Amino acid sequence: MTTSTAHSIGGQSHADYHDTIELASKTVFVAGGTSGINLGIAEDFARAGARVAVLSRSQDKVDATVDRLHALGAEAMGSSADVRDYAATEAALQAAHHQFGPFDVLISGAAGNFPAAALRLSPNGFKSVVDIDLLGTFHVLRASYPFLAKPGASVINISAPQAVLPTITQAHVCAAKAGVDMLTKVLALEWGPAGIRVNGVVPGPIEGTEGLARLAPTEQDRGLITASVPLRRYGTPRDVANVCRFLASPLASYVTGVVLAADGGWALGGAAHTMGAIGQPLLDALADKP
Length: 290
Prior knowledge:
- By secondary structure, the protein is α/β, with parallel strands linked by helices.
- Helix content is 46%, strand content 17%.
- The chain has helices at residues 36-47, 59-71, 86-100, 123-144, 171-191, 210-215, 219-228, 237-248, 266-269, 271-287, and strands at 4-9, 12-17, 27-31, 51-56, 76-80, 105-108, 154-158, 197-203, 259-262.
- The strands form two sheets. Strands 5-4-3-6-7-8-9 form a seven-stranded parallel β-sheet, sandwiched between helices.
- The longest helix is centred in the middle third of the chain and has 22 residues, at 123-144.
- It is globular and about 55 Å long.
């Protein structure tokens, strides 16, 4: 639900609709929820009153995140596991279910990325990203199914523009995230009869994320990206969290199988061209090699 209060601006009364969709008593699990966009999502759901469980590979990050969520007034817990390990992922989900009960919202956001031209990308490097992004997403979703609220659960996969935009130095990510988007749509079909909605969110260039820092390391690169976004700014983790809260809420109760961009129009404004210009020096350097 949303809440509103009346206040006066310039002698007129206006309704101030708060931007928090209430999630009190709801249970949210965020895979990859200890850094970047996913941490922002976990914090936002905590502010909205949800119980939040997080998962990541680093126990130190898990502990720090749980402390942050507690500081926001939320019930919180976390587990360390690698999403590439099905048994460990399943155990983490089971522990959260044991403590908090069925999941009303599941966010799958664990991801890996690094820029590499295909001819400089080892088979192991390609496999590593596919295993984290695609296989890891499958593991999280497949293992979570017994613990999802039925009916009513909302599953949200965090995708990327590379899922639909061929991008220089991103063959591994393009392949993996395209798979994530198709997995989202297939599970929306298969799990819909159980009352489970499955959607995806595609973040654009988001401030402060490790992945974008790798892809656009210089101020010149950042300027190119900003200029290619129709809204002329980087997004924030909160921008992505807002979309996730909508998809998790009753407002989206008839929305499933959708992959929704939260990118400031970046895909429309030349994301692939801009990232190609940034990645072109890598290809040029490769061409110079015998």
